Amino acid sequence: MELVLEADGLGRRYGGTWALRECSLRLPAGRVAALVGPNGAGKSTLLHLAVGLSRPDAGEVRVFGHVPYGNTELLAEIGFVAQDTPIYRDLTPEELVIMGGKLNRRWDATLVRTRLAQLGIPPGRPVGKLSGGQRAQVALALALAKRPRLLLLDEPVASLDPLARREFMQSLMGSVAESGTTVLLSSHILGDLERVCDYLIVLHSAEVKLAGPVEELLEGHRQLSGPRAAGARPIAGVAAVVRASHTDRQSTLLVRADGDPIDPEWTVRDVTLEDLILAYLTDDTVTRASHEAWGVPA
Ligand SMILES: Nc1ncnc2c1ncn2[C@@H]1O[C@H](COP(=O)(O)OP(=O)(O)OP(=O)(O)O)[C@@H](O)[C@H]1O
């Protein structure tokens, strides 16, 4: 199995605070991976380390087996669209296509022109005068024109309307299916991820909480509901309770299954990707610490 991205004990610190800590990951080739986590979880930090824009303070990251920091050779293989799509605002899309051709070894100008024409983006208007969503589309088209082997996208659909979002995701999927590009994209829009991603990485408070192929993760978790008292005892078939919520009479648990049959006292159902992400994103210890820092009761 070819690995595109490998991180081992990877960490990045700003001042005394870890933005990413003890991050260990393996992203196999050909995957479309979702990078999910609340604001400030460390997603952009991980993407910046992977593209070589910043240097680790601990551990290491490798892309196609090489250290990305300061590695201009490797940059030719990576397409990156940063969160705020910072493309030159005074240049027009057509000028950016020409510039891209001069700066990149592999450059598919026809691809980018066709894409932008389909999207109705005017070739001659300065990028700074396009809408935020149109700018995001231009940035993605330019990243795809590089024909990268790894495409890193930091919240690419945040500024798009629902229709444009769907179109963006569909065309992204179309392009990567054709080229076999591996994609790592961060997003808060869980519905979109469910449709397109086959690999999931959940970050919370600078740490990886969950990572793996979506199919395996869904297979390894179940949602249980049953009488509240039953939740107090160990449950057959359950390796760990990830998240529990209770009413006076009823308990609902999202659990990691251990492969054995689950105690028939519980009603068992499959989980969706959204159930899984939300369960791993809820972290009461963080909420408590934040309340303490603000001096307000939790
Ligand atoms: N240049 C910086 N200087 C200081 N702290 C930073 C810097 N960049 C990020 N951080 C801090 O590092 C942590 C992780 O930030 P990061 O941008 O990676 O999060 P994120 O998961 O991408 O968040 P969001 O979903 O809001 O984009 C945050 O606590 C943030 O405040």
From TrEMBL:
Record's keyword annotation contains Secreted: no
PROSITE patterns per UniProt: ABC_TRANSPORTER_2
Gene3D superfamilies membership: P-loop containing nucleotide triphosphate hydrolases
Keywords for this protein: ATP-binding, Nucleotide-binding, Transport
Any Pfam family hit: ABC_tran
GO MF assignments: ATP binding; ATP hydrolysis activity
CDD domains: ABC_DR_subfamily_A
Residue stretches making up the ABC transporter domain: 5-230
Annotated protein name in UniProt: ABC transporter ATP-binding protein
Species of provenance: Micromonospora sediminimaris
